[in-house]
Amino acid sequence: MPGFGTDTVDRAEAECASLGDIVDDGVLARLERASPALRNALSNALSEAAWAPCHSSLGVAALLPAGRQALVEAPPKAEAGFRVFKWKVGVGAADDELAILDDILAALPSGSSLRLDANGSWSRRTASLWLDRAADRPIEFVEQPVAPTAKGADDSLGSPPITPCPWLLTSPWWPTATWPAGSTLAGVAFSW
Fold first, then answer.
1. In a domain, 52, yes or no
2. Which residues, 6 or more positions from 36, have their beta carbon under 8 angstroms from its beta carbon?
């Protein structure tokens, strides 16, 4: 995946060209440090003959880009087996993104869920609008709705927050949060 890790397509092509006709454990061991993504792909390909998926959907979230492009990318990801989707929000105007929300949900297969990832970009007022809208939709949670430095952000941690939709706090909150990682309180999950 572009932007994740240090492997590049050019590097993987060069490595593949140098492998020879047979890939075995010795070849995989050589690739472990130099090209971890290629090593993993080849290892999976070697074991694929003996391994068959026991489910029809993937247990990880498909990443959807911001804005209307999510409507283009969601159907092929659903066809590939994804049933949990993570949509980047807080990039465009809140009104525009809120208008797209139901279109994205309608494009997903029945029984799917959507995670919203705001990356701390919303004001408390915008977060409140989104959390209210998400309450009666198949939204699994909203990740990092407001930045820890947002005016009034600490108020949401001063007492148990009451929100209509679960939300997830990620690492930037940990210096101010007093609740343990992995715990939940009034619909808030802590992860760091």
1. no
2. 5, 7
128: three-class secondary structure by DSSP:
helix
Alpha helices (H) in the chain, listed in sequence order = 9-18, 25-34, 36-47, 69-79, 94-107, 124-134, 155-158
Please check whether residue 53 lies inside any domain of the structure.
Answer: no
34 and 111: one domain?
Answer: no
Say what the pTM is: 0.59
Distance CA 53, CA 16 (A): 26
Q: What is the pLDDT of residues 132-174, one digit of tens each?
A: 888 889 998 888 888 766 665 544 443 334 456 766 665 544 4
Tell me the CB-side half-sphere exposure of residue 72, using CA atoms within 13 A.
5
Give the Cα separation of 62 and 140 in Å (integer).
13
8-37 confidence digits (pLDDT tens): 778 778 888 888 888 887 777 777 566 777
Report if residue 3 sits inside a domain.
no
Number of domains present in the structure of the chain: 2
Percent of the chain scoring above 70 in pLDDT: 64
- Asked whether residue 13 falls in the same domain as residue 107, the answer is no
Q: Are residues 76 and 152 in the same domain?
A: yes
Q: How far apart are CA 85 and CA 63, in angstroms?
A: 6
End-to-end CA gap in the chain: 23
